[in-house]
Write a structure and sequence with these properties.
The chain has 6 helices and 16 strands. By secondary structure, it is of the alpha+beta class. Strands 4-1-7-8 form a 4-stranded mixed sheet, with no helix packed on it. The chain has a 4-stranded antiparallel sheet with strand order 3-2-5-6, with no helix packed on it. Strands 12-9-15-16 form a 4-stranded mixed sheet, with no helix packed on it.
């Protein structure tokens, strides 16, 4: 009704003639006001998309978009002044300085995740007092791997890889072996002798499934003890039993601190006593190995994975 009455006046008729102009003015006014939000939206996108994914191409495209929008915002329909160029330059420098700092912090907070089809492989060696450098497909991945200590899990693509172990004391002594890994699995390769044609013992490790639990893994890599048991320190409770030579067993347990002992299943002679500190969502490995003289050596380690680096 109001529009009908207004349309009867001369003023309303004049204004209605400019109705399309008012429409375009409203659209462009809204667009210009949205441009003022561009820097804030840019920073939100950097924190939401770039820092979480560490994707540089996303940053580049976001920066190009914000650069284009700010040129339009600052220059408009007239030629930009030196002052406008100076403001724009300050804006770009400020954004990249903020991002570089945020990116450094983001790298600490968000390690990039390996591809879902990755495989994981770690190496442990005994029977030698020497340390080794380990290369995978011609690229050094582990430096100074000491005896009786397992490496981190290396992140590999699924398929076949060439492993080379170079003796640091005698660089001419290189062990080469071809390994095949499948996606989504973790493997432990144990070298117990050092002939050039040495064949490692391969263990398909089980990943922890309940993140509220701790996973305990025991490896019998001794050359002269056929079977071992894991018991509480007083011998009253069996934790794991019947771990045959060159095999492993695992058990998901509650996070706890406990004293345990490894015993020879034949005769129940105590091999070693260990203090365990089990925390949630961790894998603790206990390795029973032998020295070159045949003496038992026990080591325990938390399983860790190397930091993934984007290619």
């Amino acid at each position: 009704m109001l529009l009908e009455r207004l349309s009867k006046t001369e003023l309303s008729k004049s204004l209605l003639q400019f109705k399309p102009a008012f429409f375009y003015v409203a659209i462009f006014t809204a667009f210009i006001n949205l441009l003022y939000l561009a820097p804030s939206i840019y920073m939100l996108e950097v924190y939401d998309r770039v820092l979480t994914s560490s994707n540089v191409s996303t940053l580049v495209f976001l920066s190009l978009i914000i650069l284009f929008l700010n040129v339009k915002n600052y220059s408009g329909a007239r030629m930009p002044s030196h002052k406008t160029y100076f403001k724009l330059a300050l804006f770009i420098v400020f954004n990249f300085l903020i991002f570089s700092k945020s990116f450094a912090i983001g790298e600490e907070l968000y390690d990039p995740e390996p591809p879902s089809n990755s495989s994981y492989l770690r190496i442990i060696h005994a029977g030698s007092v020497d340390s080794y450098n380990v290369s995978v497909d011609g690229k050094k991945r582990i430096s100074n791997l000491k005896p009786a200590l397992a490496s981190q899990y290396l992140i590999l693509t699924s398929g076949t890889h060439q492993i080379e172990m170079e003796n640091i004391t005698n660089p001419k002594k290189v062990i080469k072996v071809t390994v095949s890994v499948v996606p989504g699995h973790s493997f432990t390769y144990a070298f117990l002798d050092y002939a050039v044609i040495s064949k490692p013992f391969i263990f398909d490790d089980v990943s922890i499934s309940n993140r509220l639990k701790s996973q305990l893994m025991v490896y019998n890599l001794s050359t002269n003890i056929n079977k071992i048991d894991l018991q509480t320190a007083d011998g009253g409770t069996s934790v794991m039993s019947g771990i045959d030579k060159y095999t492993s067993k695992y058990l998901a347990v509650n996070p706890v601190e406990a004293n345990v002992q490894l015993v020879n299943s034949d005769g129940k002679k105590i091999i070693s006593k260990q203090s365990l500190k089990l925390t949630a969502n961790t894998n603790l490995s206990i390795f029973l190995l032998s020295t070159p003289q045949g003496l038992p050596v026990v080591s325990q380690q938390l399983s860790t994975i190397e930091k993934y680096k984007r290619k």
